[in-house]
Design goal:
The complex is a heterodimer of chains A (303) and B (170). Chain A has 303 residues and is of the alpha/beta class. Chain A has helices at 13-24, 37-46, 58-64, 73-82, 96-104, 141-150, 167-184, 188-198, 202-211, 227-235, 245-248, 253-265, 270-278; strands at residues 30-34, 50-53, 87-92, 109-113, 134-138, 154-157, 218-220, 241-243. Chain A has an eight-stranded parallel sheet with strand order 7-6-5-4-3-2-1-8. Chain B is α/β, with parallel strands linked by helices and 170 residues long. Chain B has a seven-stranded mixed sheet with strand order 1-2-10-9-8-5-6. Chain B has a three-stranded mixed sheet with strand order 3-4-7. In chain B, a hairpin with a 2-residue loop joins strand 9 and strand 10. Classes of the chains: A alpha/beta (303), B alpha/beta (170).
């Protein structure tokens, strides 16, 4: 069962219980990107554990360009009205007023996301001030810990959103895992140096070294296109999976969504993974990371 | 459970139900659990096992799953505990909170974590109310089934887990 009652530096006891406690309930589930009420209904019907409201799915943002902002509030409201699942929404990195507005809309969780155009190149939202839990992306352990220090109750590895290519998600998950592994073997002096390198208090680094895990759950995002991708991330240690363009950019979104939910549930059972993958149509067309100009790669936004 | 030295395993398939000494239906999304239970053909064997007297702890979404009837919105349920619940009856995540609840029948008052919690709006006389908050039943028992609106795994000490384990391991 959960260890959410352990004290976490930077969180009050009640925040550990209500914020981290909330995201603990999403473990083993699938969180799906939706842009309108109709897609939200498809996601719920398919067994999504939560939906993420956004203006455009990442692959469309990538294709069309322009500034990507928080979703229309009217759309968020419509989504909240049609589903009973937790409704999350994205704000731009550092855009604390978008965050305030989403909190006022009573969204269940805010994703301060690199998928949207950053609003502040130096600062993230100081998330401890909010009653609503936040999720943030990371590429390695240092980034994860900076976000937790700022108050994120949930971490997701970034991957490269809108590509249908899992390679970055794998790289980031492995980086976090090996980063934690290194801390568990480090001396007190090395932990002190790591805290400086990560730019977080040493207490937080000590917490991870002692417990051998992050103080908040770690999910995976960015590039999941198939049931096999979802199960891969779970076998690599993700506790749940965010699926963006992978569902609604595929041939048959409802069937693909259902298959990914089953794949996350039975991620260690190849026979079931084969069965749920068998009758699916085409996955979204993927992008090779090397073919994306560095300036158009999303994972580098926010550090 | 692991923290209390109790070995656990996940139930995802019917064969996972074999040889259990107790069962926890945890929090999460009840609509997801219902769908997965249906796809994996778990509903009938689960109900049979509960009816046979296996000690069960149903928390939050687990309570919704076992209720006789579910409102806002109406949702199918397994009808193993004679009560009516409202989903998210205490509001969205921003209203999630820790409340001091009043224990009955020998149970002390204790802290309980409500997260997008269901609200019990009706209980049959056969259902024993073991704790209340703000006039609502929040911990109930019917025969071998203990059901909570809150998350007993998020507090320490946890009278609810103590009660369940004393029933489940003897």
């Amino acid at each position: 069962m959960s260890h959410a009652q352990d004290p976490v530096p930077g969180f009050t006891a009640e925040e550990v219980q209500t914020k981290i406690g909330f995201v603990e309930q999403l473990k083993g589930g699938v969180i799906m990107d939706v842009t309108n009420a109709e897609q939200a209904r498809v996601a719920e019907e398919a067994g999504a554990a939560a939906v993420m409201a956004l203006e455009r799915v990442p692959s469309d943002i990538r294709r069309d360009g322009g500034v990507a902002r928080m979703a229309s509030l009217q759309k968020i409201k419509e989504i909240q009205e049609v589903v009973d699942l937790p409704v999350m929404a994205k704000c731009r990195i550092g855009h604390f007023v978008e965050a305030q507005i989403l909190a006022a809309m009573e969204v269940d969780c805010i994703d301060e996301s690199e998928v949207l155009t950053p609003a502040d190149e130096a600062n993230h939202v100081w998330k401890r001030e909010y009653q609503v839990p936040f999720v943030c992306g990371c590429r390695d352990l240092g980034e994860a810990m900076r976000r937790v220090h700022e108050g994120a109750a949930l971490i997701r590895t970034k991957g490269e959103a809108g590509t249908g290519n899992i390679v970055e998600a794998v790289r980031h998950m492995r980086a976090v895992t090996s980063g934690i592994d290194t801390l568990t073997k480090a001396s007190a002096a090395e932990l002190d140096a790591k805290a400086q390198e990560f730019r977080v208090p040493v207490e937080l680094v000590q917490w991870v070294a002692t417990n051998g895990r992050l103080p908040v759950p770690n999910f995976s995002a960015g590039g999941v296109a198939t049931p096999a991708d979802a199960a891969l991330m779970m076998q690599l240690g993700a506790q749940s999976v965010f699926v963006g363009s992978g569902v609604f950019k595929s041939d048959d979104p409802a069937a693909r969504a259902r298959a990914i939910v089953q794949a996350v549930t039975h991620f260690e059972d190849p026979a079931t993974l084969a069965e749920v993958s068998l009758s699916l149509g085409e996955a979204m067309k993927g992008l090779e990371i090397d073919k994306i100009p560095p300036a158009e790669r999303l994972a580098g936004r926010g550090n | 459970m692991a923290g209390r030295g109790v070995p656990t395993r996940w139930v995802k398939r019917e064969h996972d139900l074999e040889d259990l000494t107790a069962l926890v239906l945890p929090g999460g999304e009840s609509s997801v659990m219902l769908k997965l239970a249906a796809i994996n053909e778990l509903e009938a064997p689960l109900c049979a096992l509960i009816a046979s007297g296996l000690p069960v702890l149903a928390t939050c979404a687990g309570l919704i799953l076992l209720a006789r009837s579910v409102r806002t919105p109406e949702q199918q349920s397994l009808g193993m505990i004679d009560c009516v619940v409202e989903r998210n009856g205490y509001g969205r995540q921003v209203h999630s909170a820790v409340h001091r609840v009043t224990g009955h029948n020998g149970l002390p008052d204790f802290d309980a974590v409500f997260i997008r919690a269901p609200r019990i709006v009706e209980v049959a006389p056969t259902v024993e109310v073991l704790a209340e908050w703000n006039g609502d039943p929040v911990l109930v028992r019917q025969d071998n089934v203990l059901a909570a609106c809150f998350h007993p795994e998020l507090v320490d000490p946890s009278p609810t887990l103590d009660l369940f384990l004393s029933a489940g391991t003897h």
